[in-house]
Amino acid sequence: MIRLATEGEGFKPPSAKDFVLPPIFGDNAFTTKPIFLVFLSVILISTFFILAARKAAVVPSKLQYAGESVYGFVRDNLAKDVIGHEFMRFVPYLFTLFTFILVNNIFGIVPMLQFPTMSRVSFPYVLAIITFFVFHYVGVRKQGAFKYIKEIMFMPGVPKAAYILITPLELLTFFLVRPLTLSLRLFANMFAGHLLLLVFILGGEHLLQGVIGLKLISPFAFFIGIVLTFFEFMVQCLQAYIFTLLSALYIAGALADEH
Amino acid sequence: MITLAAGEEINPLVPHTAEIIVGFIAFTLLFLVLRSKVVPMFERAFAARTEAIQGGIEKAERAQREAQAALTEYQSQLNSARGEAQAIRESARVEGAALLEQMRAKAQEEAARITAAASAAIEAERTAAVVSLRNEVGSLAIELANRIVGESLDDQARQSRIVDRFLDELESQKK
Q: I need a labelling partner for B28 at 20 to 30 A (CA). Which of A86, A102, A204, A217 fits?
């Protein structure tokens, strides 16, 4: 709709405005495309994994094998390798996190949907806040509130004078930097990636409407757009992995007696 | 469109209330579904698989142990059978040798006995032959002499004397 509005008045480069999609039904803020996409992802992920896991057969079907591969990846490579022997408690959380982010990211390049939900900063915020509470809760439960805070503020094995510098930094790291970087990394990657695709594809479209010389250039713009789509797919998977990995690392750190 | 009034600046870092609420709800929903319906099932499949593999390995190990035991038993049986055969052969050989020796002795004894009987018979025959020969030779000689000399020797007494003398001569000649 924005694209239509820009017609006839020269090419307007895509901007942050392209990420603000109007509600589909009237003024209801709960009927925007990102919100539908989030619910769609929940339905897709649930359906796929329930069907895949339904039989729990020793010799898996192709579907079960596919589901198990994803689950096994999160369970063994993310949870088990990072957290250690207590990993099983966190597998459901990390599994949900990974699949949720992955599917919502990939929506960015799925034809017809083509919008990465995580480029709306609210969703990464939500996920980062959940991880924030999970790992602090785990730390407090494991070591007791006082000891946990003390360990964060006064890292053992550091000269006393260094605490002047380290204590504020550590507090900042644990209570502000971690959730902020976690959410902003995901958001910025998805935001920038989508913007990049918009630039090349809308640009190509615009060139096509220009004079004959510009028309000849437009295939290159589309070609780069397609190459970038593959690149985006990689970034989308990578970001889902990184978010989950860091969450697991934070949990592991809170579980460890000394960090 | 409504939110995009001209010139309005949009800060993409400012969260949206509706989205935050939906984000929480959707994530929680997904978490509950995956935790209750998916994770336990996959874990069950993994456990069953591990068990199946372990069971298979144990079964194979048991079979191997059994095969090993059977082989050992078979070999020991074979060895004892070999020993037994050896013993039987040995005893048969000894027995055979003894039997042969016995037979040989018996045969020799028999041969000796036969030889002795034969020589005794021969001796008896010879004696009988000598006796009968002596009588016959006597009468033949007399008859011959009678034929040659004629009636002169009819006298019984003379006849007998002549014969005796002749035989004595013969005997002495022989010696």
A: A86
- Alpha carbons B80 and B75: distance in angstroms, whole number: 9
Displacement of CA A7 from its chain's centroid (Å): 33
Chain B nearest CA to A28, separation (Å):
9
For residue B69, give its domain range: 18-174
In-domain check, residue B10: no
Q: How far off is chain B from A3, nearest CA to CA, in Å?
A: 11
Task: Transcribe A196-256 into DSSP letters.
Answer: HHHHHHHHHHHHHTS-HHHHHHHHHHHHHHHHHHHHHHHHHHHHHHHHHHHHHHHHHHHHS
- For chain B, what is the domain count? 1
Q: What's the ipTM?
A: 0.88
B44 assigned to some structural domain: yes
Taking CA atoms, what residue in A is nearest to B43?
Answer: A56
Could you report the per-residue pLDDT of A149-208, keeping only the tens digit for each?
A: 888 888 788 888 888 888 888 889 889 999 999 999 999 999 999 999 999 988 888 888
> Is B41 in contact with A99 (Cβ distance < 8 A)?
no
pLDDT digits (tens, 9 = 90+) for A43-59: 999 999 999 999 888 88
Query: Residue B107 falls within a domain, yes or no?
Result: yes
Task: Confirm whether pTM is higher than 0.80.
Answer: no
Interval B13-46: pLDDT, tens: 888 888 999 999 999 999 999 999 999 999 999 9
Q: Does A243 touch chain B (CB under 8 A)?
A: no
Interface check B18 vs A, CB under 8 A: yes
Low-confidence ranges of chain B (pLDDT < 70): 1-8, 150-155, 174-175
